[in-house]
Predict the 3D structure of the following.
Amino acid sequence: MADPDKSSVTSGARRPGSRGREDRRAARRKRAPPGAPFIQRKIGCFDILSEEGLCLIENNADQILKEVGMEFRGDPEILAIFRAAGADVSGERVRCEPGMCRSIIRKSAPRSFMQQARNPSNAVKLGDGATVLCPVFGPPFIHNLDEGRRYATLRDFENLVKIHHMLPYLHHSGGVVCEPVDLPANKRHLDMLYAHIRLSDRPFFGALIGSERANDSVAMAKILFGADYVENNCCLYAVSNTNAPLVLDSAMSGALKVYAAHGQAVAVTPWTLAGAMSPCTVAGTLAQVLAECLAGLALVQLIRPGAPCLMGSFASTLSMQSGAPTFGSPESGKMVLAAGQFARRLGVPFHTVGALTSSKIPDGQAEQESAYGLLMSVLAGANFINHATGWLEGGLVAGYEKTIIDADLCGNVQSFAEGIDLSGNAQALDAIREVGPGAHFLGSSHTLRNFETAMYRPAAADNNSYEQWLAEGGFDSAQRANSIWKRLLRDYEQPALDPAVDEALRDYIARRKASMPDQNYY
Amino acid sequence: MADPDKSSVTSGARRPGSRGREDRRAARRKRAPPGAPFIQRKIGCFDILSEEGLCLIENNADQILKEVGMEFRGDPEILAIFRAAGADVSGERVRCEPGMCRSIIRKSAPRSFMQQARNPSNAVKLGDGATVLCPVFGPPFIHNLDEGRRYATLRDFENLVKIHHMLPYLHHSGGVVCEPVDLPANKRHLDMLYAHIRLSDRPFFGALIGSERANDSVAMAKILFGADYVENNCCLYAVSNTNAPLVLDSAMSGALKVYAAHGQAVAVTPWTLAGAMSPCTVAGTLAQVLAECLAGLALVQLIRPGAPCLMGSFASTLSMQSGAPTFGSPESGKMVLAAGQFARRLGVPFHTVGALTSSKIPDGQAEQESAYGLLMSVLAGANFINHATGWLEGGLVAGYEKTIIDADLCGNVQSFAEGIDLSGNAQALDAIREVGPGAHFLGSSHTLRNFETAMYRPAAADNNSYEQWLAEGGFDSAQRANSIWKRLLRDYEQPALDPAVDEALRDYIARRKASMPDQNYY
């Protein structure tokens, strides 16, 4: 009982003045402030599989890699890398003996690492009990209450980067927060990278598809951070999606090779809709996902031992009646929990997805599915959660209001992940003694000391009485969110960027754009 | 590897015919059918507190009972019971030595028990890894899209009982699914009990307030089940809410005494809004909740050793800015997870609450908060989840559409709680071998064998394409739910009730109603 925070359990005499100040300081310390660069978990993970189940599926993954193998299409260099490492390469098919990939990964992959940001205080930790929340990635459409659903533009992209920059419980600026389809498909990655660099000072993604765009990403990162710094620090984050089942194509592997070679983070992430791209069962999908991760992560480590990498899983489900993708399903919950266990056993950070839904609008279905998905990923111990905000319609749409409503849950899980404060102040025994049976705590000295930080406060939720809610317009949460994102855009201030860096980035982009004709396909 | 379900891991040769049939049977066995009488969990619980934290708060609860004590107001019999058991009774204040209540409870309280239903196949298990989902309790208002928000009537009560009876993933008919305020306050419990008995054949609540209504509940249960049967089996479920902090009034204790004496289930459930009825901290609230539970459960066991009882916790939060109750908060999540741990350590089943929200309508906020709350309660290992469907506006409103949307999540958690099927069929190694890299599983023989039961199918969610969704009206989930509850009411069929029992119940109700004047207050 030496811990002063616990002394009120046993100490009869109290020194109110000094204890009060100490307790207030303790309360502030215990509560991560809004704007913490990442969540540092003080809670455990939820393990859904037993040791026996884990071994069974790990054995199945090994069996798949040995018997069926994985195809690396259109990239002879990768085949040579695997052949040199001892794999059985036949055509584009790579087969590995049980344990081979795991042992390559365990030998050199870091258990945790930092991704840098141009504002050093926004650097994020990947692994080691940290969780990083990131906006939606990839939608060609946007939705908001004013305009409904339409194709996204660069203006939307910039708006979404700004809105997220203003949201205290997001940690990462993301990547393709929406597809600016008003720009040529083969050049827009330059504008997107520039928008992230200029409009936010949080970490961001490199371009995912193709070695050329990955090289552009590295080049721009070197302008921002310095060339040597980039070679020795993780400054870019990238996802490499396998083409499940059991294929990695050259568009994905091309980018993977660039990032791995430069020591930038790669999250090897099978994207599966169970029933289409993997078996329609949880255990079957998990074995396939793990097999693909093992092959992809081994490739990263064979390219550059020690390169930062994450095991990823984006395992969703399918309506077996219509063939439509489904989200927030019980099967997806089971899969993310198990995948987190596999990543921990492998000894690499875990990347997954968050607030997914097939709803077209930010309604009850959207938030039921999204809350389910984000919570499961948090409980799975995810170290990076992509799509933590804004996703609608199976990822086709980035929702402005959905972003704001989801951000409330991001703040909730940050507070939740802090676990239970057991300090003397939090135990509040004196408050219970002071108030006694049948009275209330509203005016107690303990409440007065703690009320400012006692509870998490969501932004879009309305907790007022029916009468007050009605008097204020009787709005639903999407309507309130509409006001909030507009206010965030009004209040947004661009973080200062060194004019010389800005100039160099603009110059690089102009030269690259001039070097090739516009294309409206990838 | 003797388990035939796992033999495909090791067996090279396969007998497709016999294995196929066996696997299909296994798949059917593993998936609890819609309409299972309760959830039998195959997953663990999420422990948020360490052993050290648990002991700290248990010690604090003991300290509260010893130093502050609990008041039992207006009931000298209870004071005498505690005095005889060795407590320090002063006025209405009962103080107990550390460990006294826990030892009384552990000595005789059952770890699990069944609550019977007039349809024996609908009996529910409380405890032992079972989870029972129950409708909202108590709202004086209803909300639906056709009429908005208005006072509830007996017609609404009957509608909600019928709708829930038709929902396959609910297990309990509940109690005051809404307050039929068109009936006299002092007699409506008779009509509510009769509606549950007549319109559903699932288990139901006894009336919670006052010994007189509890006695009516026992009398009607005896007409339904037989007098001896009721004395020897749990046929009624009741919640006894403490008047936090640290008071049990005679309205609650009166009913508690009746149910305990007759061996009917009592869930001793402190209802706290942290910051008003308990300290504004999680650890402080937990100690107070546990203290109140210990006193209440000890009382139950002192009245009738072995009487079925549950430790309950309904620990919500307050907006410290407006004083409004808040739901789905991170603090509420932490509290329910910890409370579940305390119940397991005490050795009694755990009762708590589910899909709560302060939203006025079934919107994004409503489902974000509700999904959060229900999932936390499931992860907490709750054995009985009250308010699993329909709750709106801090419990003032029962929502017709909210009921339907919430029921989708009830089905989800039932499937989730089954854990991961590790049978040979579920491992699907042959499917992966058959399909191979780059192909798809939609037409694989494994998918064709499993597609009917492969995935959970929610009712109100729309997973179709934007174009199809728009062509079908572009409805939100509440609008779809509106059609669903109307269809359920149309399709509803009343389960047959023995006419003699029905006659006896009507006779009892008529006599009781005639015996007292109407009152419009409790």
Observations:
- The longest strand of chain A covers residues 130-135.
- The CA atoms of residues 260 and 300 of chain A lie 6 Å apart.
- Chain A touches chain B through 130 residues (CB under 8 Å).
